[in-house]
Specification:
Layout lengths: L1 H21 L17 H14 L17 E6 L2 E9 L6 E8 L6 E8 L2 E7 L7 E7 L5 E7 L6 E7 L33 E2 L2 E2 L6
Antiparallel strand pairs: 1-2, 1-8, 2-3, 3-4, 4-5, 5-6, 6-7, 7-8, 9-10
Length: about 210
Amino acid sequence: MMHRKTAVIGSLAMTVLLAACNSPMPPDRPATAAPAAKSDDVIGANNAIATLALPPAKPLAPNPEYARFPRYVGTVGGKQIEMRLGAKTDEASGIHGEYRFAGSSSVILVAGDRDGDTLEIEESNDGTHITGNWVGKFAADGSVSGERMNADDSNPQPFELRPAVAGVTVPANRGAKPAAPSLEPAPPAAPTPPRNAVGGTSNVIIGE
């Protein structure tokens, strides 16, 4: 009887062990991948989206103070424009103003110098960033011609402007340039006559 109980217990233990071995294993959990670093493409795309989200630059309206400046009409790159240029009050050769394309209500600011017959100005379509450069020469009749380029001096376009009213032009530099220093030595100073001298002769009493 004792041997039979032992055999039954052993049989049950074996059954439990086999059942444990045959039970399905829990599924393996996938390893959590570390977050990948942002690539340059992702960063560039985010920057582009942020740029597109910015409000567009507000067009510049004409400045009433420039309405009294000499007016020029002509073309740049084959397109009709009107430009007003006037002298700055704080710079001898400085000029500034604005221009606009025919049919446009917004303007583009310009500022630079007129030195003799040479014109050099920069433009800005928002009042902050430089968007172009102008280099030209004035003729005797007040007209000016040359090239307008992008801010990096690329894509040069010819321009030709003439005074809308004959003879009314932006003045050239108003201040006279200081004379260049002379390389000649300065003349020697005249000798100082002695004190108490009269007519170049020392006032000394000589005994008889």
